[in-house]
Design a protein that fits this description.
The radius of gyration is 23 Å and the shape is globular. The chain is of the alpha/beta class and 425 residues long. It is built from eight helices and 35 strands.
Length: 425
């Protein structure tokens, strides 16, 4: 193998349980975003735009769709003989296999992959954030300071700082203390989960920590360990758009931000394109009877009804008389005649029967999972069917083929759910 200055390790094995039914059968990084994209497209595109041409993608939870999407890395120009993209799944070593049990443990288990390239630096990334970052600038910062590790940080509102890992720094942004979700944070420099390590120091830390913690984690173990040993760590300040789309509300909000006249996050920037595995399909079509306003309509969509303030993925059909507002409709969904959908997420390959109304009534949190569905957004899971002439409230969840007999009085009240495959919603 050709020696590489820096290799990226993209952690994409998380379940993303706070996205509820959207990640029932799908890894969070593979969830649709912004119409034609997947969440993982953003860090992958950042890599190639930054000149990082060797990327290991660590998968674990429900990886089938994610693996298909990545393929051999063609959309990101990562189909290379030397380097490129490599999918790294948990595997058998010796007599038994072992799941990734922590962020650092996942890297530890893939040290042979890194050793093949003998890198000077290792870039650790999360596969589930929406942002644009030039990692080459972060590497320059790392080299300039001659440090052992550099941690990207974002200034957050001090009232939200207790939700993050907080870096306490001196006047030169040299880190002297790390606090994991402190009750009383000393500042607002939140870790973004993006790290550059000197490979020599990281390798030693991973090996040593593996003997102490089977669930070795960067935030809980590796970073505090390096600080305790007197290693030099610096905070790299990031001052642009960054979004953790880890909840139903934040995922919905980030999609809605894309449709503003002047979006804070620009998908159309020629100098920093976002690449994805785009299936060749026919152009979008809007009929004479259609009405579309302030929306993202992907290729292959057919619009005969009304779409307002919404994001539609490829292949969606909105029939005549249907009204879709403030909603996200994913790939190949069919919205039949005279349907009304408001503040709703409909996952791929789903079908809504004619005359059905979704998203009305009081904002009552979901009866089983109020911590996931509590902001008025109703979610229809992938490959689901909703019959005709049904009224569905807010914070509802439907998964599978819902039948007329599943509803009382042709209605599903706010906070209720119908899940045909297991109990997880």
């Amino acid at each position: 193998m050709v020696k590489k200055e820096m290799v990226a390790m993209l952690l994409a094995g998380g379940q993303g349980s706070r996205l509820g039914i959207l990640t029932k059968n799908n890894a969070k990084p593979a969830v649709s975003f912004g119409g034609k994209y997947r969440i993982i497209d953003f860090p992958m595109s950042n890599c190639i735009n930054s000149g990082v041409d060797t990327v290991g993608v660590l998968t674990q939870y429900m990886p089938l769709f994610l693996n298909r999407h990545i393929g051999i890395g063609i959309p990101w120009d990562l189909d290379r003989q030397s380097g490129g993209v490599t999918v790294l799944a948990p595997h058998i070593k010796g007599e038994k296999g072992e799941w990734y049990s922590g962020t650092a443990n996942a890297i530890y288990q893939n040290m042979p992959y890194l050793e093949e390239y003998s890198p000077e630096y290792v870039l650790i990334l999360a596969g589930d954030h929406i942002y644009k970052m030039d990692y080459s600038n972060m590497l320059k910062f790392h080299k300039k300071n001659g440090c052992d590790a550099t941690i990207a940080v974002l200034e957050v509102d001090i009232s939200e700082a207790s939700r993050f890992g907080i870096m306490n720094t001196d006047e030169n942004d040299c880190i002297y203390e790390f606090e994991e979700k402190p009750e009383h944070p000393k500042n607002n420099l939140a870790s973004m989960g993006i790290y550059i390590f000197n490979w020599k120091e990281l390798k030693a830390a991973l090996i040593e920590d593996h003997d102490e913690h089977s669930d070795s984690d960067f935030g809980k173990h590796i970073i505090p360990k390096m600080l305790g040993e007197g290693k030099t760590l610096y905070a790299y300040r990031f001052n642009d758009y960054w979004k953790d789309v880890g909840t139903i509300e934040s995922y919905w909000q980030a999609n809605m931000e894309l449709i503003k006249s002047l979006p804070e996050f620009n998908l159309y920037e020629d100098l920093w394109p976002i690449y994805t595995d785009t299936v060749k399909t026919q152009p979008q079509y809007c009929s004479e009877s259609s009405h579309v306003k302030t929306s993202l309509i992907s290729a292959g969509c057919e619009i005969y009804g009304t779409v307002i303030n919404s994001v539609l993925s490829p292949g969606v059909i909105v029939h005549a008389g249907a009204h879709v507002r403030d909603s996200i409709i994913m790939d190949d969904c069919i919205i039949h005649e005279n349907v009304t959908i408001e503040r709703c997420i409909v996952d791929r390959n789903s079908e809504i029967g004619s005359g059905t109304v979704i998203g009305v009534g009081d904002n009552i949190p979901n009866e089983k999972y109020p911590h996931i569905y509590d902001t008025g957004i109703t979610v229809i899971g992938e490959n689901s069917t909703v019959p005709a002439d049904i009224t569905i409230g807010k914070n509802c969840v439907i998964y599978g083929e819902a039948l007329l007999s599943d509803f009382v009085g042709n209605a599903l009240p706010s906070g209720a759910g119908i899940v045909k495959d297991g109990d997880k919603i």
